[in-house]
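Hello support,

Our group uses your service weekly, and this is the first time we've seen a run hang past the timeout. The protein is Sister chromatid cohesion PDS5-like protein, putative. I'm not sure whether the cause is the sequence or the server load. Input pasted verbatim:
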Amino acid sequence: MASSIDRIVLSNDRVTVQKLRDVGRKLSKNLASSVDKLLEILDKLELVLSNLDQDPAKPIQESLVLPMKTLISDELLRHTDDDVKISVTACLTEIARITAPNAPYNDEHMKEYLKLMADAFEKLSGVSGRGYEKAITRKNFKDQNILDHAGP
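Update from on-call engineer: The timeout came from a worker crash unrelated to the input. Re-ran successfully.
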């Protein structure tokens, strides 16, 4: 018999699975959308991914398949907008964190991801724009998260 904690965890997993499926579908169906629409969807995906632990439960892993495939599509990896590329990089970085120590993609796709990440860092040399703000926000979030979990 499942405890109340187990039921809460299962309920949270179901919610997470549904969120991943919804945002994965939206992303896959809106690859040709406006930059603003793509950024909105990518931001939602990044938020959901950032709340996942490494090696999540099997249903969550299964619901990651569509977003993972869509993120490495030519439409996103070779998008002309720098902010979209930076958002894709942020999502791919979360995917890499979640699947670590295993690589989430084959060697060719990992090379594409690493090139995209290097290009994104190059674009961050200026201290303005959405990409820079996103990087600083993510860094501050990660720093605070580390501090919150650090011992005395």
